[in-house]
Amino acid sequence: MKILLVDPPFYRFFNYFNRYFPLGLSYLSSTLKKAGHQVTIYDADCNKNSKGMDYTRLPEKYRIYLKELRNPENPIIKEISEIFVKYQPDIVGVTVMTPKAASAFTIASLAKKYNKNCYVVFGGPHAALKAEEILKNTKDVDFVVNGEGEAVLLELVNTLNLPPTLIGGSRNNSFGTIPGISYRDGDKIVCNNTKKFIDNLDSLPFPDRETLLGLDTYTSEDMGLLMGSRGCPYSCSYCATQIWTRKVRYRSLTNIVEEIKYVHQRYGTRQFTFKDDSFTVNRKRVMEFCNMLMNEGIKINWDCNTRVDLVDPELLRTMKKAGCNSIKVGIESGSERILKLMDKGITFERIQEAARLFREAGIHWTAYFMMGIPTETKEDVKNTLELLYKIKPSFASIGVYEPFPGTRLFDVGVEHGLVNKEMSYEDFFTRIPSDYYLKDVNRRVDTMDFGDFVTLENEVKDAFHNYNKGVMRIFERAKARSSVYLHNPRIFFSDIEKFLGWV
Fold this sequence. Notes:
It is built from 20 helices and 15 strands. By secondary structure, the chain is an alpha/beta fold. The protein has two domains: 2-191, 3-Layer(aba) Sandwich (Rossmann fold), CATH 3.40.50.2300; 220-502, tm_1862 like domain (pyruvate-formate lyase- activating enzyme, Alpha-Beta Horseshoe). Strands 2-1-3-4-5-6-7 form a seven-stranded mixed beta sheet, with helices on both faces. A six-stranded parallel beta sheet has the order 8-11-12-13-14-15. Helix 14 (378-391) links the parallel strand 14 (364-371) and strand 15 (395-400). Helix 1 (23-34) packs across helix 7 (149-161), helix 10 (283-295) runs parallel beside helix 11 and helix 11 (313-321) packs parallel to helix 13 (348-361). The protein starts with a strand and ends with a helix.
């Protein structure tokens, strides 16, 4: 069958930079192609010539996104329809994150206008958590994949490819045997049990980068996105851990290094990014990985995500020697009470100790913060700003908490009368994404009125913006990426252009 896998446009509508390629879709593609299906990956959010980079100010652009989604003359909307006509897919698979839900619904609608018999399949985090809501809201979506998609989507595609004579004339009978999908059977919504996770991640082929439309528009760094593990053992209340459970599954180090070698040789990539939730959760494994890179003489740079309580001096020194040049950690709040509400499991002492260790190791590090948590006060937010100046990260980002389904904070918001459990189809097109699921868009927290919150939000975001514009911050970032710039000047000039647009 001919399958078009789509990452819906979002950042592209307001000309924001969107690095990398859609890793999840690429894993689906390689699995489907291995089984003999014809697959094309359409990264409709690919926007490599943009200049926008200040993501703390992103919500200011959301109105543009909603307006243009319903503008048939928008060039992006026209492009989507043209892609359908050009590639004639039998199946359109769409990955859905909550902020992109309206865009995903638009893709589904355009797919049905192209061909009412084209099957539309939703997957991804939002789809897995809100399958019934999606199927109830629109007839344009035929199936929703829950959880890990490779095996589930393949089984669904194979079933759709069977002639009716081989399935007793009723496809719905066959759909009922496919674990991990939701679908409509007449007026009834059927949600099958979730399929067991893939234990042997080495059994998956490498993500399919070759099938990306506009492959030549991606930089070597874009191609360096990697996933070494799936799952996270922690239970932060702002994260939808129920999708993956708290079990961590790993690819073998040999398998990861093979992919690094392939991508380096094929695309000239020297800067890789690990998408693992907490890269250093298994210290011994990370040390072995670093030693493997050094022993094999693989001279690359790489960055990762981790936690402040999962680093130590020896580990960071070894990571730095093996090419790690940037680490991202979630600090979240300067309020001890809010940290406890988030189930973060870290202390201020540990945060400050990790900040010192990052500096001593000479590794560029980014600290992520949030504000707007239910029950958060002005004093809590003030403490967050004070913590920023105390720990002095190389770069800092802050966002207003958005109530994502599947998180414990979502349930806390419901309990405090701030959050609705469900949204209607029209809600996704009339509310900006940062307001999704809010009961009242003019009441984000229950401790201050809306005007005071907006004033506080602007003050804090201005403070973070000015902090990141400091000369030392710019120098630290440039120093960390110097090796990348040396081998690929195109990335250097691209970063300069984006920075100038950002400041």
